[in-house]
Amino acid sequence: MRQRPFGLPSTTALVVANMIGAGVFTTSGFALADLGDRRWVLCAWLVGGGIALTGAMSYGRLAARFQESGGEYVFLSRVIHPAVGFVAGWVSLLAGFTGAIAFAATAFEVYALPADAHPPWLPQGALAISTIFLFAGLHAMAVRFGLRIQNLIVLTKLSLLVAFVTYAFMILPSDGWSGLHVENQGRPFSIFAFAGSLVWISLSYSGFNASVYVSGEVRDARRTVPKSLMLGTISVTLLYLALNTIFLYAPRPDEVVGREDIAAIAALALGGEGLAKAVRIAISIALLTSISSMIVAGPRVYAQMARDGVFPPWLADRGTDTPPTKSIVLQTLLAAAVVWMATLEQLLSYLAFTLSLSAAATVACLFVLQRRDVDRKKSLLEMAAPATYVTATLTLATLAAVNRPWQLAATCLTVASGLGLHAIFTSKKGASQERNL
After folding, report:
1. pLDDT of 45 over the 80 cut
2. Which of 91, 94, 255, 309 has its CA 20 to 30 A from that of 337?
3. Domain 8-428 belongs to what topology?
4. CA distance 28 to 278
5. Distance CA 261, CA 111 (A)
6. How far apart are CA 282 and CA 157, in angstroms?
7. How far apart are the C-alpha atoms of 197 and 248, rounded to whole Å?
């Protein structure tokens, strides 16, 4: 058997690439408009990182027990019921990867080709779709080749972001930041506004679980996958806090409140047009890694479902060192279609709500396993992380549903269609087995 292609560097890079996308470069301006105090915005990012860390710890425990590719589909199928696992896989297909890839690709086009630089002859969405096809081709050619490209782009992205953070803090003692000594508005704290901001911020932390989707192709997965989840989540949380400190305090607060291009405004305040262009390039590269990493992870879920007989068998791959080419093709075509069909705002709202519920259900598997493992009961301290994650995630999802009921309706439609498809696939599988007897 050939050696599994994923090691700790590749799995950690996969986590980092999935986490760092458009959200960190756009969210804080809207959060500042809601909260009115930059300190509370930073606090929200810290709380979001803490929630993501409890999720990473919980997913790590599940990954150590079930060392198969497939993520939520595998965990829920093995612990709860195959139908529940199928719905989670269906959510991954529609929202977790197809919608998320389309979101990242569309955002990439917005940053790489702003309105004033977009050629009139180039259709909207053309660059986004071309980028999806480019990375699909790379990862369909060979696992190891695609991973080398992926790791190189992630390293470039991190280098540019760290360089920006370093430059910003280096000039702080001499030139200072124009917004550093401007007082906050002093608006009274609102727990509802804080929770609402956390809903958006939580999407920027989604992706902390990325390496569980490739567990079956990871060397020493029992140890490597949990380590990659923790290393990736902690690193990204620290980077997010540093970046948002700069975004919020480098310019004056009235310059960034309610703005989606907060990163570019902060860069402009620190170093003029030159630095603003450099940051735009860094954001574009960050979005490229998001697209690439999700094209790596997503098709592994569908391939695992095909091997289990609940998805068409032609989607299954042939081995641990062979890319699931047909699943990659399916993923690419679906993501390209969504680019044409949906707006960024629609995708963002749908993804934040649907994925949070799927992740909460997955972490809840640990409570089921707690009841079954009569030989070794977990301590209250060990169960604190999953309890915190599930409680926080469901609370945020409830608040989101109250404010935007259509999100709940869209998620219910996704779940219902998944259950219907599971019934169709299982009935066909049963009929086929009867004919073979």
Report:
1. yes
2. 309
3. Amino acid/polyamine transporter I (1.20.1740)
4. 20
5. 10
6. 6
7. 15
